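Notes for week 9. Today we move from apo structures to complexes. The key idea is that a small molecule is not decoration. When we ask for a structure prediction with M6A present, the ligand SMILES becomes part of the input, just like the chain. The input block below holds both the sequence and the ligand string. Read it once before you look at the output, and try to guess where the molecule might sit.
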Amino acid sequence: GSPNTSGKYAVIGYYMLGPDEINKYPAVDFPVSNISPEKAKMLTHINYAFIGINDKGQCDLLKGANEQKSAEVFQLLTNLKQYNANLKLMFSVGGWAFSNDASPTANRFRDAASTPAARTEFARSCIAFMKKHGFDGVDLDWEYPRKQDANNFVALLKEFRTQINQAEKTSQSDYQLTIAGAGGAFFMSRYYHLLDKVVEPLDYINLMTYDFNGPWQGVTKTNFHAHLYGAKDEPKFYNALREVQFNPPKSWEEITKLFPSPFALTADAAVKQHLIMKVPRNKLVMGVPFYGRAFRKAGTDNYGLYQTFNTQKGDPYRGDPTWLVGCDKCVERNEPRIATYADIKKMLAGGFGYKRHFHSEAKAPWLHNAKHNLFVTYDDKESMKYKTDYIKQEKLAGVMFWHLGQDDQESTLLKSLHNGLNKK
Ligand SMILES: C#CCO[C@@H]1[C@@H](C)[C@H](OC(=O)NCCNC(=N)NC(=O)NC)[C@@H](C)C(=O)O[C@H](CC)[C@@](C)(O)[C@@H]2OC(C)(C)O[C@H]([C@@H]2C)[C@H](C)C[C@@]1(C)O
């Protein structure tokens, strides 16, 4: 189906149930009932995260997920259309934990994309799953195809498009195909040389323009994880797009002009890098985080910004979960490096010593806790306003966010996106 069928900006929210939540449903953090009619009206798409790929290379529930419970949840999601007839329900296949290079199931996408027969069967099974549960399309969240997978990735998306077009004909429906795409040059460089061919079969490419900085970096500095623009004195990164083999080849002069290095890793950079490869603006969706990232033992200068830090790496987190003062849920989750927007609002309001700052160049807020040497990078309604203004001025397709369950009770962030895109 054509993108933006409703003529409005896309507002694509991920609805995530954790690994074992589906079998405990509705005793979960964020049941579907939390998606009020008012929220449903502000969304154009809900992407259910996640469906997996089974050992036969087919779309299937994640291992251990109860069929009956899953069908119930999918029914609750599709019932939301009663509040918004234009709402499209997509399911998302994969995700970081399922598909990253170090994941035990890293080969599932690679194998499913590796031969014509595997691609046909994978697409067939996903479309059958889509029809069975009343979804309106498929979102592929492969994080990420490797360079050696890039051609197979394009062939896979083409096969999905072929079968979706067939399915649309036989059932007079409007199905969509989207992917979650890299927001940072490092992962982007794996398939960047084929980017126009990757996007051709898609309705949207949802850029994961977040996680630019985080605890995984051993020795770099605290910095924003999803800022819109670069700041002149921020720590810069090597531009991996300089290594991309273009066909036809580009001269070194052209490459150094197109891909300055080092450069500020930002959302604007990711959008411009996609426009260089002629990705149509009406397929480009900017991803925004409803979560923040916290750094421990941040240096005290500059209100904790661009300072060295010492946050334990490793997945899952094995250290002390209590150092992000005021984030009770972080202790429950045993993950102090990620705070939801709802957590951050409580931390800021709770008198724990956090002070909010806003960077005038990056257009990003941050919290600094001088007493505990903490730095928290996140998005709030002020930064979302700049991002929705940007989406309108660059004539992009809309906004995607990770994820619905991380907003506050008042739906502050979803409202800021909806109002920013739909009001003058
Ligand atoms: C695609 C994605 C984000 O995945 C999240 C995981 C992978 C979560 O990642 C994020 O929240 N990432 C935010 C950026 N989003 C993406 N990378 N992808 C995305 O938005 N796609 C649309 C990280 C921070 C996390 O909590 O991972 C822990 C180890 C620290 C992990 C891998 O153990 C894990 O732990 C819990 C929190 C219990 O959840 C699971 C998963 C086992 C699930 C499967 C992963 C999930 C949903 O929490």
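The pocket of M6A is lined by residues 14, 16, 18-19, 95-97, 141, 143, 180, 208, 210-211, 315-317, 335, 338, 402 (CB under 6 Å).
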